[in-house]
Automatic annotation (TrEMBL):
This is Adenylate kinase 3. GO terms for molecular function: AMP kinase activity; ATP binding. InterPro entries: Adenylat/UMP-CMP_kin (IPR000850), Adenylat_kinase_CS (IPR033690), Adenylate_kinase_lid-dom (IPR007862), ADK_active_lid_dom_sf (IPR036193), P-loop_NTPase (IPR027417). Belongs to the adenylate kinase family. Keywords: Kinase, Nucleotide-binding, Transferase. It catalyses: GTP + AMP = GDP + ADP. The keyword Membrane does not apply.
């Protein structure tokens, strides 16, 4: 039910409120204290960061400094096949026929949260709310920033940095999302 509530905010182009987001994330982190883990997009507010700090020891915060327009182009170019979940990107992984799933021939759709106006609203809200979070972690000496527009150019620098934090993580393990 909390996930359905969260989706309603996303579909409106709004960010999920702190209390809902914090409950979702912290419940997932319970029992993971013996593992290394990485959060993507959380915390996005100082209140979330403070709640996370009360529950977990944070070692490093990575900031991917990617231009607004790059992110907007990638997200608004994303189309999906609803039945299978296959994802296409018109820029770098387009379907063979525009608007049609390669395997079934069924129409592709754009998720509400990938529509240009929704993406713009979400990115503006995210930017305004996360600047204080970056400063919060910068002051704690935990923030490391990486700038760029292409994953294959940024990733080697991130991987080298993570090796200093987690030297026992192999390239294969690092490439496998959990």
């Amino acid at each position: 039910e909390v996930g359905i509530l969260a989706k309603s905010y996303i579909d409106q182009g709004r960010l999920i409120p702190d209390d809902i987001m914090t409950r979702l994330v912290l419940s997932e982190l319970k029992g993971l204290d013996q593992y290394n883990w990485l959060l993507d997009g959380f915390p996005r507010t100082v209140a979330q960061a403070e709640a996370l700090d009360k529950e977990c020891q944070i070692d490093t915060v990575i900031d991917l400094d990617v231009p607004f327009e790059t992110i907007k182009c990638r997200l608004t170019a994303r189309w999906i096949h609803p039945a299978s979940g296959r994802v296409y990107n018109l820029e770098f992984s387009p379907p063979k026929m525009e608007g049609i799933d390669d395997i079934t021939g069924e129409p592709l759709v754009q998720r509400d949260d990938d529509k240009p106006e929704t993406v713009t609203k979400r990115l503006q809200a995210y930017d305004a709310q996360t600047k204080p979070v970056l400063e919060y972690y910068r002051e704690k000496g935990l923030l490391k920033s990486f700038s760029g527009t292409e994953t294959n150019k940024i990733w080697p620098h991130i991987y080298a940095f993570l090796q200093t934090k987690l030297p026992d993580v192999s390239q294969k393990d690092a490439a496998t999302p959990r």
